[in-house]
C-alpha cells in the first residue's frame, strides 16, 4: 500500500475505475454473445442487437475503456457477419 496520501487516493480511484471498466467490458461481451446467438436464429432480432452493440462499443471507445480501433474492428466484423446472414436468407 502507498504511504503518501495522494497515492492512497489514487489507488482507491483506480480500483473504482477498474471495476467500472470491467463491468462495461463484460456488458459488451454479453451483447456479442447475444448477437451471435440471434444471428443463427433470427436476422431481424440480430439487427436490433447489432445497433445496441454498436452503441455500447462506441460508448466504451469514447470513455477509453477500449481502444477506438478495437471498437471499429469489432463493429466492422459484426457488420460483415450481419450482411452475410442477410444475403444468405
Cα shape: elongated
Strand content: under 5%
Write the H/E string, N to C: HHH
Amino-to-carboxy terminus distance: 58 Å
Low-confidence stretches: none
Number of helices: 3
Average pLDDT rating: 95
How many β-strand stretches? 0
Classify the secondary structure makeup into a structural class: mainly alpha
Approximate helicity band: over 70%
Rg is: 17 Å
Descriptive overview:
The protein has 89 residues and is an all-alpha fold. The chain has a domain at 36-89. Helices cover 88% and strands 0% of the residues. Helix 1 (5-41) runs antiparallel to helix 2 (43-62) and helix 2 packs antiparallel against helix 3 (68-88). The model has no long low-confidence stretch (mean pLDDT 95).
Write the layout of secondary structure elements.
Layout: H1 5-41, H2 43-62, H3 68-88
Helix pairs in contact: 1-2, 2-3
Amino acid at each position: 500500500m502507498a504511504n503518501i496520501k495522494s497515492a492512497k487516493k489514487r489507488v482507491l480511484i483506480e480500483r473504482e475505475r477498474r471495476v467500472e471498466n470491467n463491468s462495461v467490458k463484460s456488458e459488451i461481451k454479453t451483447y456479442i454473445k447475444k448477437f451471435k446467438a440471434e444471428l443463427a436464429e433470427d436476422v431481424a432480432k440480430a439487427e436490433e442487437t447489432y445497433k445496441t452493440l454498436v452503441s455500447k462499443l462506441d460508448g466504451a471507445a469514447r470513455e477509453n475503456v477500449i481502444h477506438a480501433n478495437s471498437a471499429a474492428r469489432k463493429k466492422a466484423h459484426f457488420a460483415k457477419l450481419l450482411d452475410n446472414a442477410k444475403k444468405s436468407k
